[in-house]
Specification:
Blueprint lengths: L4 E4 L2 E4 L10 H5 L2 E9 L2 E2 L2 H14 L8 H14 L5 E8 L15 E8 L5 H6 L1 E5 L19 H12 L4 E5 L5 E4 L3 E6 L2 E5 L9 H13 L3 E4 L11 E6 L3 E8 L2 E2 L6 H16 L7
Parallel strand pairs: 7-8, 7-14, 11-12
Antiparallel strand pairs: 1-2, 1-6, 3-4, 3-5, 5-6, 8-9, 10-11, 10-13, 13-14, 14-15
Organism: Effusibacillus lacus
GO molecular function, one term: lyase activity
Cofactor: pyridoxal 5'-phosphate
């Protein structure tokens, strides 16, 4: 049973007392967006970038977030204090709010919820030895908004995650309708081919993760060429190393895909990005990531 407090529409309340309307269209129709973030020593990593994506996503489905970035940042800070957390998983959820049954009509103000809990950390050995991925039968569906947003309709990722778990994997690779590699169920993917970084193109329907964008910025600052492309699983044989990115786990080396081991894990490029990330965290350079 999860305990503690949550932030609901500007007020912090015990989680067992938190309520939203049964007519909220986030519950009825999946009409809403969310962002998952982590904190280091009480500071939210890449907060500005997460909020920018959240507002952009909300606008695509006709939701105006009714709080300023400063108000949400203050809400996170106060919630962390109330729950006595410094290293935390933080999620902001914005739903359309209460409205009539049906997809048309007048709506009230959007519902905004901030949730914070102790950060679920991966075992240290995962960063040292890497993790194994599988190729999922569950395909990444085409985004309904043209560009994929982090919406409350998360069923496609859930189906993929359940499949991976049933096969004994912590993460799996989802292909698009054409059979090209898209992303993990909860992560973006990077591979190394010769002297450059390769990552699936947004055209595959992937979610352009905040940590993915952060890694691309680091690559540019280091002078590492990055290629965003559509490619099939056949190309995996040409890669020397790889890693996943996720807002909670950061940068995680890939040891193998479907039993095919990468020559190096973690490889020199992966290690370089991991060390650079540690430096960013240590120095608290959260605004721009580099």
């Amino acid at each position: 049973m999860i305990t503690g407090k949550v932030w609901v529409n500007g007020k912090i309340v015990p989680i067992e007392e938190a309520c939203i309307s049964v007519l909220d269209h986030g519950f009825l129709y999946g009409h809403g967006v969310f962002e998952t973030m982590r904190t280091y020593a009480g500071r939210t990593f890449l907060f500005r970038e997460h909020l920018e994506r959240m507002r952009s996503s909300a606008a695509l489905i006709r939701i105006v977030v009714p709080f300023t970035d400063r108000q949400l940042e203050q809400g996170i800070s106060e919630l962390l204090m109330e729950n006595r957390l410094t290293e935390a998983y933080v999620r902001i959820t914005v739903s359309r709010g209460a409205g009539p049954m049906g997809i048309r009509g007048e709506f009230g103000s959007p519902t905004v919820l901030i949730f914070a809990k102790p950060l679920p950390l991966l075992p240290e050995e995962v960063y040292l030895l890497g993790r194994d991925l599988c190729i999922l039968q569950t395909r990444r569906n085409s985004p309904e908004t043209g560009t994929r947003i982090k919406s409350l309709n998360y069923l496609n990722s859930l189906l993929g995650a359940w499949e991976a778990e049933e096969r004994g994997y912590a993460e799996g690779i989802m292909l698009d309708a054409k059979g090209n590699i898209a992303e993990g169920t909860v992560s973006n993917l990077f591979f190394v081919e010769e002297d450059h970084l390769v990552t699936p193109s947004p055209d595959t329907g992937l979610l352009t993760g905040v940590t993915r964008s952060y890694v691309l910025t680091i690559a540019k600052s280091l002078g590492i060429e990055t290629v965003e492309a559509a490619f099939s699983t056949e190309r995996l044989k040409r890669f020397s190393e790889g890693f996943t990115t996720n807002s909670l786990s950061g940068i995680v080396p890939i040891r193998s895909v479907e039993g095919q081991l990468f020559p190096e894990c973690p490889g020199p490029v992966t290690s370089l990005f991991m060390e650079r990330h540690k430096l960013v965290v240590k120095e608290g350079a959260f605004d721009h990531g580099v």
